[in-house]
Amino acid sequence: MIARVILVPSLVHEAPLAVFRNAPALVPALLRAALALDLPPFTTDELADADFTQPLPAEFRADLVIRLIGAPPARPDVLGIVVEVQRARDDDKRRSWPLYVAALHARLRCPTCLVVLATDPAVAAWAATPITSLQPGTSFVPLVLGPDHVPRVDAERARREPWLAVLSALAHGNRPDGVAVALTAIAAARTLDDEHANFCFKLIYASLNDATRRALEDEMLTSKDLEWEMPILRRAFDEGLEKGREKGREEGREDALAEARIQGLQRTRRTLLDLASRRRPELSADARQRVEACNDDDRLALLVVEVGSAPDADAVERLLAAL
User: Fold this and answer.
1) Is the pLDDT of residue 234 over 70?
2) Do residues 135 and 203 both lie within one domain?
3) Which of 11, 191, 236, 302 is the least crowded, having the fewest Cβ atoms under 10 Å away?
4) pTM value?
5) Does residue 75 register a pLDDT over 60?
6) Mean pLDDT of 94-115
7) Neighbouring residues of 174: CB distance < 8 A, sequence distance ≥ 6
8) Of the residues 85, 119, 149, which one is the last residue of a structural domain?
């Protein structure tokens, strides 16, 4: 798995990519189910290098690249997939998409395609428009997964496919019944280990608009039947409720959320340092200080995933040096 040693973009943009990094098989599954694409037989899926920089001044880097690999012993590359997350129209970015696919085609020497994930229906329609300026008489047509192509999963399927449930929350969390979709995904994430469960909660929470986020917070504050919440958030919310009885619901609510964020930041730092120390026992003092000094919880949460998937100990050190 290739670790990307670059500055972390916004968590909202990175959220779907984080899902695909942890569950790359979702991409070919969605292409088959949502777009009825006939994929070649494969036995393995792997992340690949997403850097397509050429010997030119400009830098070209795709969001994610996935290789589908055939059966052993030869294990040939059978399909290369460039994944791009697009949250708004960007004509300059759009012009770079054919380059990504051509460069991957030359690298892998097998069929390749571009998949654009767009959580906004209007952006999805724009992304699906053929690119006709590349060569006269031909067009390049991106494969686009819009919000309607990502299924809303019920609780039973969410337990079987927790990463699909998280992707569903990212696609549908701000649509009608979005809180229910988010709750289903967070419940499913509890089937993962604590680090990934906490990370999934942050991905979902960051993707919600203010109204949906407030509704989700209210649900967590008032429910006494839910057992899926992160323990640290549950404690903070319960403390906030107790304060709310004395100072009023709104003040108590804000205190609960503030305390949850503070404790969550400290826990994410500890998680990252523990994981980095296991991956690189000789972790430098400078790297530890950078983690302790970072107050960007979203960035620290992404680094937990990046450090966990780093190819070697030196890559761990480089990731933390970028803080």
Assistant:
1) no
2) no
3) 191
4) 0.67
5) yes
6) 93
7) 207, 208, 209, 212
8) 149
